[in-house]
Amino acid sequence: MTRRNGWCLSLLVALAVSLSACGGTNPSNPSRSGKPQVTLTLMGNQEWVQKPIIVRAIELYEKQTGNRVEVQAFPIDTVDTLIRKRVAMGEISDIVIHFGGAGLSDLQPENNFADMSGERWVADLKPAIVPRLTYKDKIYGLPLWESSIGGMLYNKEIFEKYDIPVPTNQAEFFDACERLKKVGIIPVYLASKDTWPLLPQYGIDFLVSKVPDLVESLNSNRIRFADIPEFRRMLEWYMRMKDGGYFGKNVLNNNWDSQPAALANGKYAMAMAWDVYLYTDLEKKFPGTADKFGIMPNFMGGPDAKQFEGPNAAMLMVNKNGQHLQDAKAFIDFVSQPEILNEIYRDLYTETYFASVTSNKLTKQYEEAKSLIDKYLYPSVTPFIVGYSQNEMGKLVQQMMIGSLSIDEAIAKMDDNRVQAAKQRGIPGF
């Protein structure tokens, strides 16, 4: 999950000026160790590099070592393409932030990134996260990331004011939307202009309950999205929400940056997001607002759809062919120390992927909904689907909502995108 702020524009300007920069050494300005100061480069999504976890890690490293980290931020809607191009050109930064799973194959990790399977910190990882980092039985990155639960955030005060019960199933959810609409409150804020926040992956996670071998079947071309009735019902949910006015009249102009204000001022009652968002985005901009919200399941899909999305983790990977290989590995070793990890996560509202970290906090929303979360939590599966792109999927959902594509046409294009990507990678069966 991701966020945006204005200072990234200056980073992008700097990146445009020196796109191929891969770090350097300044012998006239020694580091704390007495060695020449090193400048490492780190590239990633412009949202990700601003996460408190990443910012704190860099600040601690720079303060205690005297070295520097130059951040190269890419726009969220083109980051995957740009990083793939940089990899193809051999112009990778010293450190790259990227998700694991099937999408990692585009970066050819065995040729470009250091195998970290034997590093000290691997033993500190909680077992549940290891499969999400592993590619062909190897770990290529440190999961320095937040751990959040995706669902439907809702304004408890609005629901209480209008005596609307918190929905427990899809029928009750649509009823709540209708009642909210009648009292002049737009039920759900959807940042559809930016495409990636359309979040169809929430519904895809639920498909595993209908097709247990979903990922394996898609990746071997035994089935396609078009073959799964529940997949179509997921897209029908978007259209019912739009046609019913439950996203509001201006849904196609809503962007991600405007969501905090839309929720804080009470114009909208709900939004699809994750529990940690309330503290990293909403509370940060509108202090005192986060506690007004709870989290319920998403009801995206058929009548029985009911799901929370489990956490996913991006990781810090080291360019094994870079000029500063050892220094970049030393950065990972530094931030992965238990005492440093605890400083990084101190008082942040998030779970962590490290057994040694105890300084973090769980969100109030997670604790209040824990029994439901335990029952209806589905792991995030889309990172493991070959050819799946959150941005491209979002664009097709957007085109469907605009009316440029029918539901069936959107599904066909979604399948075509996956199949084309699989063929390009030489995946058997395509």
UniProtKB/TrEMBL annotation:
Species for this entry: Cohnella herbarum
Presence of keyword Cell membrane: yes
> What protein am I looking at?
Carbohydrate ABC transporter substrate-binding protein
The source's superkingdom equals Bacteria
Q: Which residues does UniProt assign to the signal peptide?
A: 1-23
Q: Which PANTHER family match?
A: ARABINOSE-BINDING PROTEIN-RELATED, POLYGALACTURONAN_RHAMNOGALACTURONAN-BINDING PROTEIN YTCQ
Q: What is the lineage of its organism?
A: Bacteria, Bacillati, Bacillota, Bacilli, Bacillales
**Which keywords annotate this record?**
Cell membrane, Lipoprotein, Membrane, Palmitate, Signal
